[in-house]
Amino acid sequence: MATNLSFGLLDTHRSVRHVGKLLVQCMSGARPFSSATHKNRLEFGDSTLASSDLNTSAKTLTRQEKLREDNIPFSSFLTDNFGRRHNYLRISLTEKCNLRCQYCMPEEGVKLTPRGQLLSTTEVLTLARLFVKEGVDKIRLTGGEPLIRPDVLDIIAELRKLEGLKTIAVTTNGMNLAKLLPLLKDAGLDLINISLDSLVPAKFEFIVRRKGFHKVMEGIDKAIEMGYDPVKVNCVVMRGLNEDELLDFVGLTEKKPLEVRFIEYMPFDGNKWNFKKMVSYQEMLDHIRQQWPDLESLQTGHSDTAKTFRVPGFKGQVGFITSMSDHFCGSCNRLRITADGNLKVCLFGNSEVSLRDVLRSGASDEDLLQIIGAAVGRKKKQHAGMFSISQMKNRPMILIGG
Ligand SMILES: C[S@@+](CC[C@H](N)C(=O)[O-])C[C@H]1O[C@@H](n2cnc3c(N)ncnc32)[C@H](O)[C@@H]1O
Ligand code: SF4
């Protein structure tokens, strides 16, 4: 089973306990979780990876020295070999969830990491502080379902105190949102993305394998009422499931200040992805334009992942996350930390390094930054393409944090 194989690799990683060992691993260029073959390293045009005989640590230092010499106005540890500056960190707060979405959670469930191996509140905050000190100015809390973590309010309140952190965002399934939102806002939450894949209650339940449609709608309305603007609604579009609801979702933006974001279905371990189930951006756009031919394209920022549009006169807007048909790797500014403390430099790469183990070995900030810098330095130019990704071992999405 793909999931088990993937965990085999991750377990190997978890057994690496000491910073000494980790540093040696970095220095010897060992990349225990990378599935990159010599061929695809060359395909990516990544000369750093192709010359794997060289000493990675020495190369990393050279790389960072070079970046420093170039006087880049950003952390050399968070700048990769393609000049991408990683100022956006996503932290997964939990592997658990109160829903079981078909595209995210494998039908058979996932093996949860023992509690003691998950990042504690202090560890989450220590890492966040370090990244913010290096230039991260946006942190998104995700999961699993971040709002089921009991200390989520404390984490947000502590993050709020970090100088330099401009934006704190949460991606949630909305189940507990209506109840928690006033507290989240008080703690300092700036942005909310809420997942909703169907406007038909029975279909919602089929997709997420649980009840709760009305709670999510209540959460969306509460977010609007409390002044979040735009409230982003994430909708994973799957053929045969909800692609017939595209126009209804666009219709929602007529009166509500929502940004409905249609996400192309992506392959992860255990989610039974197949190309035929994926509805491409172009297909969605063509379909929507049949109803609203004057749909207008809106300007987006350099590292925005969504291509955004508005129907003239509508309050809200729609966006498309085109990771499969038209990736945005060139402007990627994201890093991820999983709930068990692994740094993941690419959502679609299985190369990971345990910051938790480094932290627990008593490493200094400088040690951590060396490990982070080496991982960022190994980030590939772009993902391997949807067909390769669908064959590759990775975690199930629920264990990554979207
Ligand atoms: C993994 S969830 C975690 C946060 C929260 N539980 C939620 O559902 O919003 C983060 C986002 O990833 C998206 N997602 C999960 N699996 C996906 C897949 N296979 N393809 C595209 N998006 C996916 C979800 O729709 C959600 O918007
Ligand atoms: S998408 Fe979010 S709500 Fe759905 S199973 Fe994954 S983590 Fe849970």
Topology of helices and strands:
Blueprint: H1 2-14, H2 19-28, H3 38-43, H4 47-50, H5 56-69, E1 88-92, H6 121-133, E2 138-142, H7 152-160, E3 167-172, H8 177-187, E4 191-195, H9 201-208, H10 213-225, E5 231-237, H11 246-252, E6 258-264, H12 281-291, E7 296-297, E8 306-310, E9 317-321, E10 334-337, E11 342-344, E12 352-354, H13 355-360, H14 365-377, H15 386-391
Parallel strand pairs: 1-2, 1-10, 2-3, 3-4, 4-5, 5-6, 6-9
Antiparallel strand pairs: 7-8, 8-9, 10-11, 11-12
Helix pairs in contact: 2-14, 5-14, 6-7, 7-8, 8-10
The protein binds S-adenosylmethionine (SAM) and iron/sulfur cluster.
Could you explain the architecture of this structure?
With 402 residues, the chain is α/β, with parallel strands linked by helices. It has a domain at 88-329: Alpha-Beta Barrel (TIM Barrel), CATH 3.20.20. The protein is 36% helix and 14% strand. It has helices spanning 2-14, 19-28, 38-43, 47-50, 56-69, 121-133, 152-160, 177-187, 201-208, 213-225, 246-252, 281-291, 355-360, 365-377, 386-391; strands at residues 88-92, 138-142, 167-172, 191-195, 231-237, 258-264, 296-297, 306-310, 317-321, 334-337, 342-344, 352-354. Strands 7-8-9-6-5-4-3-2-1-10-11-12 form a 12-stranded mixed beta sheet, sandwiched between helices. α5 crosses α14 (365-377) and α8 (177-187) packs parallel to α10. The longest helix is centred in the first third of the chain and has 14 residues, at 56-69. It is globular and about 55 Å long. It starts with a helix and ends in an 11-residue tail after the last helix. Mean pLDDT is 85; it is low at 1-19 and 22-55. Bound molecules: S-adenosylmethionine (SAM) and iron/sulfur cluster. Iron/sulfur cluster binds next to loops. It holds the Pfam family Radical_SAM. Its EC number is 4.1.99.22, 4.6.1.17. This is Molybdenum cofactor biosynthesis protein 1. It catalyses: GTP + AH2 + S-adenosyl-L-methionine = (8S)-3',8-cyclo-7,8-dihydroguanosine 5'-triphosphate + 5'-deoxyadenosine + L-methionine + A + H(+); (8S)-3',8-cyclo-7,8-dihydroguanosine 5'-triphosphate = cyclic pyranopterin phosphate + diphosphate. Its cofactor is [4Fe-4S] cluster.
